[in-house]
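Notebook entry, structure prediction.
Reason for the run: the old model in the group folder had no record of what sequence produced it. Starting over properly, with the input documented here first.
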Amino acid sequence: MDNEEKGIPLYPIEAVAGASGEDISVEASEAEGYYRIPEFSSSCIDFLVKVKGTSMCPEYQNGDVAGVRKINDLTFFQWGKVYLLDTDRGAFIKRLYPCEENPDLIVCHSDNAEKYPRFNIPRSSIRNVYLSLGSARLRE
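New structure, fully documented this time:
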């Protein structure tokens, strides 16, 4: 059964960290589940990840599910958009901006900027980049 029949896989964010190479290398066995979200299916979503923490509140809250698509061209970013970055520091979701002082750095912003200050990350420490195309909030 392929992903289209099963739905979009949901991976723990830790499964994305450390992935390397041009293709998504998370294992199918690591999927926590599969979801059918019609709006995500038509947006070329590669997989879903559960958002952890409050750094991206209010847009992305703890437990939300973000639909992401792999970006292969690391020379072009849509500044101000939210990305899932797989870096040598781990995987995290941030809004990205250029660093005016140094083009080898990317500025990572949290939407909850009062509690989480922005920080720079070297482009060289980024292994994979995924554009967040939307999120879903699950109610318990």
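Summary: The chain has one domain: 3-136.
The old model has been moved to the deprecated folder.
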